[in-house]
Model the fold of this input.
Amino acid sequence: MPLEVLLSMLLSSFLKFAPLLVLGAGGAMFLSRSTLGKALVQRIRAGSLQGEEVAALAAQLEEVRHELGEIQERLDFTERLLAQQRGALPPSGSSEHDSPTPPEIIPAGRR
Done:
């Protein structure tokens, strides 16, 4: 391949990606000078979570798991109670309130 063709291909490829490079560099500069960027840099320099933070998060997670277990037990109890009540109800006979058709719906403005 001649050198001129190769240079032409490289230049056309560079021109296709030049706007992305410019925008990316500008965005990186803006981010580095912003409050968010400074906080990110500080977080990276400080390293990952400290041992105390990890222990506190683990304790909170264990507390949430315990509370979730209690909620599940309460739900199970409520479901069993409702099932018992359904079994204790007498069979429904026909009454004047039971009808094969639903009641007529009256629009809100026509009362």
Observations:
- The chain has a mean pLDDT of 79.
